[in-house]
Structure formats: C-alpha cells, structure tokens
Amino acid sequence: MSQLQARFFTDNKKYVIDDVPFSIPAVSEITDLSNVINKLLEGKNGDHKHVEFDFLVQGQFLRSSLATHLETENISTEEVVEIEYVEKYTAPQPEECIMHDDWISSVEADSEWILTGSYDKTARIWSLEGKAVATVAGHTDVVKGVAWVKRDGLSSLLLTASLDQTVLLWEWSSERNKLRARHCCRGHAGSVDTISVDPTRSKFCSGSWDKMLKIWSAVPTEEEEEEEEESNRPRKKQKTEQLGPTRTPLMTLSGHTEAVSSVLWMDTEELCSASWDHTIRLWDAETGSQKNMLTGSKVFNCISYSPLCHRLATGSTDRHVRLWDPRSKDGSLVLLSLTSHTGWVTAVRWSPSHEQQLISGSLDNLVKLWDTRSCKAPLYDLAAHEDKVLCADWTDCGLILSGGADNKLYTYRYSACLSDAGA
Amino acid sequence: SVGRGGACTTSAPSLHITFSLSLSLSLSLSLSLSLSLSLSLAFCSQDIRNTVGNIPMEWYKDYPHIGYDLDGKKIFKPIRNKDELDEFLDKMENPDYWRTIHDKMTGTDVCLSDEQVDLVHRLQQGKFGDVNFNEYEPAIDFFSNEVMIHPVTNRPADKRSFIPSLIEKEKVGKLVHAIKMGWIKPRRPKETAPQYYDLWAKEDPNAILGRHKMHIPAPKMRLPGHEESYNPPPEYLLTDEERQVWEQQDPDERKLSFLPQKYLSLRAVPAFSRFIQERFERCLDLYLCPRQRKMRVNVNPEDLIPKLPRPRDLQPFPTLQSLVYHGHSSLIRSISISPSGQWLVSGSDDCTVRFWEVCTTRCLKTMEVGGPVKSVAWNPAPSISLVAVSYGENVILVNPGLGDRLICSATDQLISSYEEPEEVKDQQVQWAVPEGKAQEQGQRLILTHPKAVKQVSWHGRGDYLACVMPDDGSSLQVVIHQVSRRRTQNPFHRNKGAVQCVSFHPSRPYFLVATQRYVRVYNLIKQELTKKLMANCKWISSMAVHPGGDNVICGSYDCRLAWFDLDLSTKPYKVLRHHKKALRGVAYHKHYPLFASGSDDGTVIVCHGMVYNDLLQNPLIVPVKVLKGHIITHDLGVLDVAFHPTQPWVFSSGADGTVRLFT
C-alpha cells in the first residue's frame, strides 16, 4: 500500500479546495499533507501565503503517518479517505511570569484583573500585565480558593476561601484601590477548598473538607444596625467584626462521604461537585436535593464544565483527565480519557470559546492543552513550571493562567489560529 | 434249460407281485375309483359288479359266493381248478400271462389290454394318466399385483381395510404407555461414526512387545577419526604445550583419551598398549549402561503452586508513587495520618516534627523538639486533635491546630480543664505543662519518663496512651497514661523480656505486647494473660492489629512477616518472606483488605489480606505490589508505613528523609 485515495475538505471558506479525490503516498505525515494543501491553494489563487494545517480523519487528529493512523483506527484504505483539514492551532504564547511569596493555590482572572490565592494566607489582585495591585489579607490560614463575584464599574466583589474554615466576601474599588471585608461566612467544619459563584452572581457555593456543600448569598448587606452594640462585645468578637458581619449559609447540601474537592454551577439551578469519595454529584440548587450521581474509581481533584459541549471534565489521582456526560441517567459514563500526565491532575479547565479544547495541570509540573479529538497526545505541553501545578484558569479573552508550587503564575496568550490572532 | 426256466419262473411271479402291489397301492391311494370302474368295465362284457364294498375278501373265504351283484343275487366264485402245475404251465405257455391279473372282487382273471398296461406304466412313472395332459403349460397370473382395469374379481374393498383397527390401536397404546413408564426403551439411534478398535490401548508394558519398546540399544563406540590414524594430519598432532596440558589434566577431563601419534608407515606402529584397558572399559560401558527407560512422574511445577487470584482482580491497591514529601534532613522514624486523612505527621532524627497537607505535600508546620523523634502517633479519636510525639525520655502531646477549629479548641479546653487532685500520688512519670514558645507551637503536655521512650500508641477512644521503654532488666517497660486525668499506670510488674512494641486492641479490652520473640495478649479488665503468640522469629520489630481484631501481623528483623489468626492458633497462620532485609514497619488498612510492610531493602510490599466474617474460612493473603522509591541510606530503607484512613493509599517514610505516598 504505497498510495491511497483521499479527499480533503474544510469548513473554513478561506481554504476551500476542489472536492476531488487525490492519490497521496500512504507514508505522508502532517507536513507533507500540509504542503499538498498549500500547493493546491497557491494554484488556486496566487497570493496565498503558506499556512500550516492540521488534519482530522473521522474526527481524530492525525498524529503519525497516514498509514499507521488508519491502521490503528481500523479505517479501510480501500475506499476514499475523507480528511478534514483545519488551520493548525498555534502554540500559546507565554506572556507574564508573576512571582508570589508562596505557593499559589488558586487563580481566577477576568478581562482586567487576576485574582490569586496563596499559601501565604493572602489573596492578591494583579493586573493582566503582572503588576501587583492589591493584597487581600485577612485569613488566618492558607487561602485555598478565590472567585470574582461581580465587577460593575470601579467596585468589585470577590471571595476568598481558606483553610481557616471561612469564606470572606470582599469589596474592592479599583479606583481608590481600597479593600473592605464585607462578610465572613462561617459554618464549615473543615478547610474550605473550593468556591464557585452562580451565573446570576447573587449566590455562591463552597465545598469543604467536612464533606459538605454550602450555598451562601453573595449580596453584601449594610451593617449599620450591627455597629451599635460594638462596645459591649468581647475582644475576640470585635476582631472578627473587622472581617465584616458573620454570614450563615442559605443551604447545606450533604451527601458526599469524603471531602469535596471541587464545585461548580452548571446553570442557575444546577450544581455539580466532585469529591474524594470517587463520585460526581449533581444537585438541584433550589431544593438542595441530589439529582444525579456519576461514580468513578479514583479520587477526583478537580472538575470543569463546558456549556458549549455540555461535558464535564475531571482530573483525578490516577493521572487521567476524563470526560463525562452529566445528562446520562444510567450511572457512570466516561466518554473519553485523556492520558498523558504522569502525576495527579490537579486542575482542568474547558476553553470558554472552543468546544473541544481544555487545559489540565498536574503534579508532574506540566500544563497540557488538549483537543478532545486527539485523546492520546495533547496539542501542546506548557512546561514552564518547575514544581507542582496546583491551579489553572482560562479566561474569555483567551488568556491561560497556571499557578503552582514554584510560587510562579504563568500567563499565556492563546488564540486558536494565526489568522484569528491577526484579525 | 432248467436253470434258465427256473430263472424265468422266478422272474414272472415277481412281476405279477409287483403288479398286484402297484394296483393295491393305486387303489389304496384312492387314485381313482374311476380307474377300477374303467378296468372292470373294460374287463367284463357284462356288468358283474360286486356290491360288498371295500372289505377284506377273506371274509367270503368259506362261502361259495364272493358277494352280490347289483340285483342282489349272489356272485358265485368261479370254479377254480387250476393247481400249481396249471399255474406254472399257464405262466410258461400263455404269452399274455404277464398282463393277466386276478380280480379279487369277482374272482376272475382279467387280461389287461395294451392301453391299460400303458396306463399302469405311466402311473408307475409318476406321470399323469392322460397322455394328452400337459402339466407344463405356461402359467397365467390371474391374481397379479398389477391393478387391472378389469380385475378378475370385482369385489369391493373390505371395511376393515379403511377403518382403523381397534386391536392395533390397543397394541400401540400399550407400547406407548410402556415407553412412557420407561418399561421399554425406544430404539437408540445407531451410531454412524465408525468405531475402531485401538489395538495398543491396553497393552501390557511387561509384554514382550512392550518390553521391546522400552528397550534402549547398547551404546555404540565412536567411530575412529583422523586423530586415531597412524599418520594423522599435522593439525591433529598435539604441540608440546597441548601435550603438557593433556598430561596435567585429569583422565576424566581429557578430551582425547590418547595422544595422537604419527608413524612413518603402518609397519612401524607398535602393538596397542591400551588394548586390554580399552576392552575392559567397553565391557564396563555395556554392563553399566541403562537398559530400560525410566518411568518418571511428570508433574508440572506450576500445578504445585496454590491457586491464588490474580492481583489485577484485587484492585484497588496502591500501585504508583504519587507524591514525595521533602523537607526532613534526616531519617524519618515514624509517620502518622490524621483520622480525617487530610494531614500527615512525621517525626525525624533531625529533631523536628513536621505536619503535612496530604494532597499537596505542603509542609504546614514544623516543630522543633529536643531530640531525635522516635515515634509519632495521631490520636485516632475524631473529636480530639492531639498528636503524641516521643523523643528521648519525653513524650509531648501536641495540638497541631489543623482541621476543625472547634475540635482544636475543645481539645485545648479538655487539657487545660484538668484540676490537680488533692492527694498527689508520687508517679514515675512527670506531667508538665509547657510554657512560652512551646505552648505557642502547640505543645500541650510534656511527660518525662525515667527512660528513653521508643514507641507511643493510642487507644482507639483516644484517652489512653501506651509508651514503651525497652529495657531488658527492668519491670518498668510499658506505661499507660490516661490523658484526661493525667495518670500513669505500670500494668506489668514482672519483666518478660525486652518489649519491642505495644498496641491496644481495636474493639476489645486487650493489650498486645510484643517482646523479642513473643506477642502476649493481655486482658486489661481481668488483668491476666490471654494468649501468647509464638512468632517463630528472632526479633520482632513491629506489629499491627487488624481492625476486625482477630488478626495480627508482626514484622521481624529476620525478613519475615508473620500473620497470626488469634482464633486459630498461637503459631503464625502464614509467614511471608518477601523482603530481602529486615522489616521495619507493618500496617493494616482500616477499611480495605490491605496490609503493607516496609523494609530495609527500600521497598514497601502491599499485600491483599482478606479476612472473612465466616470463621471457617481462612484469610486470603496475596502479595499484590512491590513499591519502590526510597533510596537506601546508611543501609536503611523504609522505616515506617501507614495507610490513608479512607483511600487505598500507603505512606512510607524512609532513611532518605522523605515520606512517599503511593496511590
């Protein structure tokens, strides 16, 4: 088998070629195929510039020579092979390296600011250029989770969760760069490892080592009436008063038999939590009842949901990233395992704009960029960290962030294609 | 002529006799009444028919008549005046004598005509009387099987031919019933496969042919080669060095039993000096060679190994090294996991105790103590946050301040709420409350013992703490502290050997004490020795009790791990010798059927140890994984192993200053 018949097609209008089968050598690799396409495009319009392409055969990325790929995928070589080509995804471009004083446990960024939680008991706000803007200090122990609640104009609300069993709700005005603790959410009996704000930005959910999920209100209330009794309170109480009035949970969801490692809102009424008891549970946020349960075989460290493709991605202690369908009613259903890491997967995050891409961070110091159409090998390895990667985030504006035990927060600018980047 | 005449007389009466015989025969056979009628009709012109019937005519012997005619008149006997001579003359002269027969019924002589003689001849030959009758006419098959348009008979078919026969029905019914009842069996279908007879299937090996098969031919002598030639090619001749080597070799080791030699001609070859020796050896070979094949029992060695389930089927168990906790600068003697599984404490020879976050390997707290830490133990009660640390002669109880704040403060309150009793007993152990920096670090109580403490072990409820001070010559080797009342007891007043380690029973009021060779199980309530387990090893290093309470494992310095079933025997149920060097630590998992052992060879061996509720079923012990990772430092490998309380993960601490987590 030296030659085989292939027909190339693409969705991108810019690079359409004639819909005729070509005879190509079976041993050709991506670069060879890419050259073929470029030749054809040059023949079609003279002012074509060389573009690197990536190729998909029946929805799977071509990563070896065509012959071996067809053999491993069990595709017949007798017929005309349909090959889709897309513009090659460009590597994420490293942008900033932001130094911290201690391990970075959590990160969340929006279009303007980066919020990181650190093991030095503080959270920090950075600009996207890596300039330190503010330090959120108030916790008495390691900050484990951070989240932006709301950013309207110059004042914003943010949350920090900590090992000291509290979640603090802060108000930050970026103009005056002033921070004020508005509320101190008490109720957990273990370290609060994860928080997630609901899509309406009025509630948030926290997951803790004490196996509980708690839903809190994220709306700050005025506190004048609290201040009148300030004088006749014990000193300790006064100290907590600096962190704002105590807030109690709206609802407690119990059901997990081990620590909750990750929680997220799938939409305004549905919560999803991953736990050390090897389960993912879906909850009704209105009634607090458990709706569905997906059972795995290993401890889950992290979870992410993509509203684009309606899939859950989990990272667990057995080095795999697994994709789940949360709507499946018949128990556990792993759609796909992405296997390439050599350590526990501590962070996964779906791309906010691309329904097939996600990043994962692992204790083997690597952040990997995956495409679900290539489950054996990632698209790119981001090997900047010198120690364990603990958190990762992917913003709407195409910024990938990862923080780890080497005290560094790396940011990458990622755009799917070169042509998009230019546009 | 007389002779001829005599011959004739003898022949004539014989003919007559034959005639009369043949006639009487034919009559008696009732061949035909018509024959006799025709005869009588033919013989007599007038019908003188006797009507007496077929009676013996002797009955009319004495009467003048011989019967009655048709009119009823007497038939008188003809006057017979012929005597013998007349008879004879008649025979001689009458040419028709031979055809004259005597009719008894009428008493007359009848002379047969030619036709009648011919008829008699035909009858004698068995032919039909009628000449014209052809007995071999071609047969006409009137009743053939062919259905004819015009049958011979046109009778309609019988009714029975189209009505089912009741008799047959009854017979069939009987047969069916018999088959149903199993009285008769339906005929078995014939086996179509041809059957062959194995001629050699049952062959007697002692039979002549069998013996022949086992025969081994006598060894043959090797054919002579070039080196045996009187004029061998020069490459076969030995050089001087080779000759020396040959001479120095043992006769058995020599490749050649002789030295090749070259002679100018065959005439110059001397007599073969080794002839007798060679013949003798040949005879010896023939005599000693095996003459029969030995029957060996062929047993597959795999079959002798007991059938154990495959380790793959016994998941989950730790398989890979996942995390390494770096930080200690010297060997880590002891580790312990918090009951929640979130924290890990390790005590090292660099005089520090470190508290780690399990899932991130983050060292959250480091506490310096006044000496190399020998043992650490996290309080197993979930409502108490205390860690016992032993260094030198002291045991300190530390509140690490990790986990639930409420539990931490409750523990502090519990310890500070102690009130001195009025009468202070003189105790061998000093209880002291630390001040200043130590208090800030979390140390809550310091217990100063008279001797160095090697091991600390909590009771499951978390109030009692046992400490081991190994000393071969003293009775004060084990003390049990009660933390809430700050009391110390010495449970043993007699020394029974150097105590290695102790453990509380997880469910019953038993206390296990391991000395160098024995494990003694004491009942704390009855204050008596319940059991003495003989470990069959030289020096026990470590011990762990199964959470079910009926099984104990002991690791020893002579590379053995002994599994005791307390209900079964005082001897080990199983001894595992998987490690190459001394065992330092053993541990059971709280929920999963797993146990692990750490050894000086740097490995942790995880075994599946399933204990069944059924008392009759013995525990199933299958080694499942050898976990490597620790670097052997100063000939020490793994010093302690501990399981995660909820996950199938095992921690090990080593002499290389690291704690490793295998998942």
UniProtKB/TrEMBL annotation, chain A:
Q: Which PANTHER family match?
A: RIBOSOME BIOGENESIS PROTEIN WDR12 (PTHR19855:SF11), WD40 REPEAT PROTEIN 12, 37 (PTHR19855)
Q: What is this protein called?
A: Ribosome biogenesis protein WDR12
Ranges occupied by WD repeats: 97-136, 136-180, 185-217, 253-293, 293-325, 338-374
Source species, please? Electrophorus electricus (Electric eel)
Q: What does this chain do?
A: Component of the PeBoW complex, which is required for maturation of 28S and 5.8S ribosomal RNAs and formation of the 60S ribosome.
Q: Which GO terms describe its molecular function?
A: ribonucleoprotein complex binding
Q: Share an example GO biological-process annotation for this protein.
A: maturation of 5.8S rRNA from tricistronic rRNA transcript (SSU-rRNA, 5.8S rRNA, LSU-rRNA)
Bias (Acidic residues) occurs at: 221-230
GO terms for cellular component: nucleoplasm; PeBoW complex; preribosome, large subunit precursor
Automatic annotation (TrEMBL), chain B:
Renumbered to this chain, the signal peptide range is: 1-42
Matching entries from Pfam families are given as: BOP1NT (PF08145), WD40 (PF00400)
Locations listed in the record: Nucleus, Nucleolus; Nucleus, Nucleoplasm
Q: Which PROSITE patterns match?
A: WD_REPEATS_1, WD_REPEATS_2, WD_REPEATS_REGION
Listed GO molecular functions? ribonucleoprotein complex binding
* PANTHER family for this protein: RIBOSOME BIOGENESIS PROTEIN BOP1 (PTHR17605:SF0), RIBOSOME BIOGENESIS PROTEIN BOP1 BLOCK OF PROLIFERATION 1 PROTEIN (PTHR17605)
The protein's name: Ribosome biogenesis protein BOP1
Q: Which organism is it from?
A: Electrophorus electricus
Phylogenetic classification of the source organism? Eukaryota, Metazoa, Chordata, Craniata, Vertebrata
User: Which gene name does the record give?
Assistant: BOP1
